[in-house]
Design brief:
By secondary structure, the protein is α/β, with parallel strands linked by helices. Helix content is 38%, strand content 21%. Strands 2-1-3-10-4 form a 5-stranded mixed β-sheet. α5 links the parallel β6 and β7.
Protein backbone atom coordinates (compact mmCIF):
# COMPACT_ATOMS: atom_id res chain seq x y z
CA UNK A 1 0.00 0.00 0.00
CA UNK A 2 1.43 3.44 -0.94
CA UNK A 3 1.33 6.17 1.69
CA UNK A 4 1.14 9.79 0.44
CA UNK A 5 2.33 12.79 2.56
CA UNK A 6 -0.36 14.96 4.02
CA UNK A 7 -1.09 18.42 2.56
CA UNK A 8 0.29 20.03 5.74
CA UNK A 9 3.63 18.32 5.24
CA UNK A 10 3.75 19.51 1.64
CA UNK A 11 3.10 23.11 2.72
CA UNK A 12 5.90 22.99 5.29
CA UNK A 13 8.36 21.70 2.68
CA UNK A 14 7.42 24.48 0.28
CA UNK A 15 7.95 27.17 2.89
CA UNK A 16 11.39 25.81 3.74
CA UNK A 17 12.32 25.70 0.07
CA UNK A 18 11.47 29.38 -0.35
CA UNK A 19 12.77 30.73 2.94
CA UNK A 20 16.15 28.94 2.97
CA UNK A 21 17.59 30.77 -0.10
CA UNK A 22 16.28 34.07 1.25
CA UNK A 23 18.03 33.51 4.58
CA UNK A 24 21.21 32.60 2.73
CA UNK A 25 21.12 35.84 0.75
CA UNK A 26 20.47 37.86 3.91
CA UNK A 27 23.41 36.23 5.66
CA UNK A 28 25.74 36.93 2.74
CA UNK A 29 24.72 40.56 2.45
CA UNK A 30 25.15 41.17 6.18
CA UNK A 31 28.80 40.09 6.05
CA UNK A 32 29.71 42.34 3.10
CA UNK A 33 30.87 45.84 4.22
CA UNK A 34 29.36 48.81 2.39
CA UNK A 35 31.48 50.52 -0.24
CA UNK A 36 33.09 53.75 0.88
CA UNK A 37 34.28 56.81 -1.01
CA UNK A 38 35.66 60.25 -0.31
CA UNK A 39 38.75 61.54 1.43
CA UNK A 40 38.32 60.32 4.98
CA UNK A 41 40.96 58.55 7.06
CA UNK A 42 42.24 55.46 5.30
CA UNK A 43 41.09 56.53 1.83
CA UNK A 44 43.46 56.83 -1.10
CA UNK A 45 42.89 60.59 -1.24
CA UNK A 46 44.04 60.93 2.38
CA UNK A 47 47.47 59.52 1.57
CA UNK A 48 47.11 56.57 3.94
CA UNK A 49 46.37 52.90 3.34
CA UNK A 50 42.85 51.70 4.27
CA UNK A 51 42.59 51.26 8.02
CA UNK A 52 46.01 52.81 8.65
CA UNK A 53 46.32 54.93 11.78
CA UNK A 54 48.78 57.80 11.47
CA UNK A 55 50.26 59.80 14.32
CA UNK A 56 53.33 61.77 15.33
CA UNK A 57 55.22 64.28 13.24
CA UNK A 58 57.63 64.57 10.32
CA UNK A 59 59.81 67.30 8.86
CA UNK A 60 59.59 67.89 5.12
CA UNK A 61 62.59 69.48 3.41
CA UNK A 62 61.17 71.22 0.35
CA UNK A 63 62.32 73.63 -2.37
CA UNK A 64 61.60 77.29 -1.64
CA UNK A 65 59.25 77.48 -4.63
CA UNK A 66 56.94 74.99 -2.87
CA UNK A 67 56.44 76.99 0.32
CA UNK A 68 52.89 78.28 -0.17
CA UNK A 69 51.60 75.15 -1.87
CA UNK A 70 53.10 72.63 0.56
CA UNK A 71 51.89 74.68 3.54
CA UNK A 72 48.38 74.39 2.13
CA UNK A 73 48.81 70.67 1.47
CA UNK A 74 49.98 70.12 5.05
CA UNK A 75 46.89 71.89 6.39
CA UNK A 76 44.68 69.61 4.30
CA UNK A 77 46.57 66.50 5.36
CA UNK A 78 46.52 67.35 9.07
CA UNK A 79 42.78 68.07 8.88
CA UNK A 80 42.25 64.53 7.57
CA UNK A 81 44.71 63.07 10.11
CA UNK A 82 44.26 65.12 13.33
CA UNK A 83 46.97 63.23 15.22
CA UNK A 84 49.75 64.25 12.83
CA UNK A 85 52.14 67.20 12.57
CA UNK A 86 53.87 68.28 9.36
CA UNK A 87 56.80 70.69 9.80
CA UNK A 88 58.89 72.22 7.03
CA UNK A 89 62.34 73.45 6.13
CA UNK A 90 62.21 75.49 2.92
CA UNK A 91 65.37 76.49 1.05
CA UNK A 92 67.20 76.02 -2.22
CA UNK A 93 67.20 72.35 -3.21
CA UNK A 94 71.01 72.17 -3.28
CA UNK A 95 71.25 73.61 0.25
CA UNK A 96 68.69 71.08 1.49
CA UNK A 97 70.62 68.18 -0.05
CA UNK A 98 73.79 69.35 1.71
CA UNK A 99 71.94 69.51 5.04
CA UNK A 100 70.42 66.04 4.61
CA UNK A 101 73.74 64.43 3.64
CA UNK A 102 75.28 66.03 6.73
CA UNK A 103 72.67 64.40 8.97
CA UNK A 104 69.84 66.92 9.21
CA UNK A 105 66.67 65.20 10.52
CA UNK A 106 64.58 65.17 7.32
CA UNK A 107 61.77 62.69 6.76
CA UNK A 108 60.73 63.74 3.24
CA UNK A 109 62.60 65.61 0.51
CA UNK A 110 60.84 67.47 -2.30
CA UNK A 111 63.26 68.90 -4.87
CA UNK A 112 62.75 71.48 -7.60
CA UNK A 113 64.75 69.33 -10.00
CA UNK A 114 65.87 65.76 -10.54
CA UNK A 115 69.60 66.57 -10.37
CA UNK A 116 69.52 67.36 -6.66
CA UNK A 117 67.28 64.40 -5.86
CA UNK A 118 69.76 62.20 -7.73
CA UNK A 119 72.45 63.29 -5.26
CA UNK A 120 70.45 61.79 -2.39
CA UNK A 121 69.79 58.64 -4.40
CA UNK A 122 73.53 58.22 -5.05
CA UNK A 123 74.19 58.77 -1.35
CA UNK A 124 71.74 55.94 -0.56
CA UNK A 125 69.58 58.26 1.52
CA UNK A 126 66.29 57.72 -0.32
CA UNK A 127 63.76 55.03 0.48
CA UNK A 128 62.38 53.54 -2.74
CA UNK A 129 62.21 55.40 -6.04
CA UNK A 130 61.52 59.18 -6.12
CA UNK A 131 58.29 60.15 -7.89
CA UNK A 132 57.72 63.29 -9.95
CA UNK A 133 54.70 65.23 -8.71
CA UNK A 134 54.83 68.57 -10.59
CA UNK A 135 56.67 70.63 -13.20
CA UNK A 136 57.53 74.31 -13.55
CA UNK A 137 58.98 76.81 -16.01
CA UNK A 138 60.75 80.15 -15.64
CA UNK A 139 59.17 83.56 -15.97
CA UNK A 140 60.63 87.07 -15.86
CA UNK A 141 59.64 88.96 -12.72
CA UNK A 142 59.69 92.76 -12.79
CA UNK A 143 58.40 95.43 -10.40
CA UNK A 144 54.76 96.44 -11.03
CA UNK A 145 55.74 99.58 -12.97
CA UNK A 146 58.36 97.71 -15.04
CA UNK A 147 60.74 100.72 -14.92
CA UNK A 148 63.30 99.10 -17.24
CA UNK A 149 60.63 98.32 -19.87
CA UNK A 150 61.47 94.63 -20.00
CA UNK A 151 59.45 92.74 -22.61
CA UNK A 152 61.64 89.78 -23.58
CA UNK A 153 64.46 87.56 -22.39
CA UNK A 154 66.90 89.43 -24.65
CA UNK A 155 66.10 92.64 -22.77
CA UNK A 156 67.77 91.15 -19.71
CA UNK A 157 71.09 91.23 -21.56
CA UNK A 158 70.97 94.96 -22.30
CA UNK A 159 73.63 97.17 -20.67
CA UNK A 160 72.44 98.88 -17.51
CA UNK A 161 69.61 96.43 -16.77
CA UNK A 162 69.95 95.10 -13.23
CA UNK A 163 69.09 91.41 -13.28
CA UNK A 164 69.13 88.93 -10.41
CA UNK A 165 69.39 85.18 -10.99
CA UNK A 166 69.59 82.09 -8.84
CA UNK A 167 73.06 80.59 -8.42
CA UNK A 168 73.79 77.88 -10.97
CA UNK A 169 73.78 75.05 -8.39
CA UNK A 170 70.18 75.95 -7.49
CA UNK A 171 67.49 74.50 -9.81
CA UNK A 172 66.16 77.91 -10.90
CA UNK A 173 69.75 78.98 -11.68
CA UNK A 174 70.47 75.84 -13.67
CA UNK A 175 67.25 76.42 -15.63
CA UNK A 176 68.24 80.04 -16.32
CA UNK A 177 71.58 78.91 -17.75
CA UNK A 178 69.84 76.34 -19.95
CA UNK A 179 67.61 79.07 -21.35
CA UNK A 180 70.61 81.34 -21.93
CA UNK A 181 72.41 78.59 -23.83
CA UNK A 182 69.34 77.67 -25.88
CA UNK A 183 68.73 81.27 -26.94
CA UNK A 184 72.38 82.36 -27.07
CA UNK A 185 71.59 85.13 -24.63
CA UNK A 186 74.28 86.20 -22.19
CA UNK A 187 72.90 87.72 -18.99
CA UNK A 188 75.28 89.42 -16.56
CA UNK A 189 73.45 89.39 -13.20
CA UNK A 190 74.20 91.93 -10.50
CA UNK A 191 73.84 89.09 -7.99
CA UNK A 192 73.16 85.35 -7.81
CA UNK A 193 70.96 84.15 -4.98
CA UNK A 194 70.60 80.80 -3.19
CA UNK A 195 66.85 80.49 -3.84
CA UNK A 196 63.94 82.04 -5.72
CA UNK A 197 62.63 83.75 -2.60
CA UNK A 198 65.73 85.95 -2.42
CA UNK A 199 65.52 86.75 -6.14
CA UNK A 200 61.92 87.86 -5.72
CA UNK A 201 62.86 89.89 -2.66
CA UNK A 202 65.32 91.99 -4.66
CA UNK A 203 62.82 92.59 -7.44
CA UNK A 204 60.07 93.54 -4.99
CA UNK A 205 62.37 95.92 -3.10
CA UNK A 206 63.46 97.64 -6.32
CA UNK A 207 67.08 96.52 -6.00
CA UNK A 208 66.70 94.75 -9.35
CA UNK A 209 64.94 95.62 -12.61
CA UNK A 210 64.16 91.97 -13.24
CA UNK A 211 64.74 88.43 -12.04
CA UNK A 212 64.27 84.95 -13.45
CA UNK A 213 62.06 82.87 -11.17
CA UNK A 214 59.41 80.20 -11.62
CA UNK A 215 56.01 81.06 -13.05
CA UNK A 216 54.44 79.82 -9.81
CA UNK A 217 56.54 82.28 -7.77
CA UNK A 218 55.26 85.18 -9.85
CA UNK A 219 51.68 84.01 -9.37
CA UNK A 220 52.19 83.58 -5.64
CA UNK A 221 53.26 87.19 -5.09
CA UNK A 222 49.92 88.60 -6.23
CA UNK A 223 50.48 92.18 -7.37
CA UNK A 224 53.95 92.58 -5.83
CA UNK A 225 55.63 91.75 -9.15
CA UNK A 226 54.57 91.49 -12.77
CA UNK A 227 55.31 88.32 -14.71
CA UNK A 228 56.55 88.34 -18.28
CA UNK A 229 56.35 84.88 -19.92
CA UNK A 230 58.77 84.09 -22.72
CA UNK A 231 58.69 81.39 -25.41
CA UNK A 232 62.09 79.86 -24.63
CA UNK A 233 60.97 78.94 -21.10
CA UNK A 234 60.03 75.51 -22.43
CA UNK A 235 63.73 74.87 -23.09
CA UNK A 236 64.20 74.29 -19.36
CA UNK A 237 61.22 72.55 -17.79
CA UNK A 238 61.93 71.55 -14.20
CA UNK A 239 60.36 68.35 -12.88
CA UNK A 240 59.80 68.12 -9.12
CA UNK A 241 60.43 64.72 -7.45
CA UNK A 242 59.50 63.70 -3.90
CA UNK A 243 60.80 60.83 -1.76
CA UNK A 244 60.96 59.56 1.80
CA UNK A 245 64.40 59.91 3.38
CA UNK A 246 65.45 56.47 4.60
CA UNK A 247 66.63 57.74 7.99
CA UNK A 248 63.08 58.77 8.94
CA UNK A 249 61.73 57.52 12.25
CA UNK A 250 58.12 57.75 11.03
CA UNK A 251 58.09 56.01 7.67
CA UNK A 252 54.32 55.43 7.67
CA UNK A 253 53.58 59.14 8.02
CA UNK A 254 56.32 60.17 5.57
CA UNK A 255 55.04 57.74 2.93
CA UNK A 256 51.47 58.88 3.51
CA UNK A 257 52.37 62.53 2.95
CA UNK A 258 54.30 61.60 -0.21
CA UNK A 259 51.21 59.78 -1.47
CA UNK A 260 48.94 62.70 -0.61
CA UNK A 261 51.07 65.13 -2.63
CA UNK A 262 50.68 62.80 -5.62
CA UNK A 263 46.95 62.17 -5.06
CA UNK A 264 44.13 63.86 -6.97
CA UNK A 265 43.63 66.30 -4.09
CA UNK A 266 47.33 67.17 -4.03
CA UNK A 267 47.49 67.59 -7.79
CA UNK A 268 44.47 69.88 -7.71
CA UNK A 269 46.18 72.16 -5.17
CA UNK A 270 49.42 72.20 -7.17
CA UNK A 271 47.60 73.00 -10.40
CA UNK A 272 45.75 75.88 -8.73
CA UNK A 273 49.14 77.33 -7.76
CA UNK A 274 50.28 77.22 -11.38
CA UNK A 275 52.37 74.05 -11.37
CA UNK A 276 52.29 71.86 -14.45
CA UNK A 277 51.63 68.13 -14.60
CA UNK A 278 54.51 65.84 -13.56
Amino acid sequence: MRIFPSSGHLLTSAVVAVVAPALLLTACSSTTPPATSGGGPGSAASGASPGQELSGGITVFAAASLKATFTSLADQFQHTHPGTRISFSFAGSSDLVTQITQGAPADVFASADTANMDKLVKASLVDGTPANFASNVLSIAVPPGNPANISSLQDLAKPGVKVVLCAVQVPCGAAAHKVEDATRTKISPVSEESNVTDVLGKVISGEADAGLVYATDVKGTGTKVKGIPFAAADKAVNHYPIATVNTTKNKALADAFDAFVQSDAGQKTLAAAGFGAP
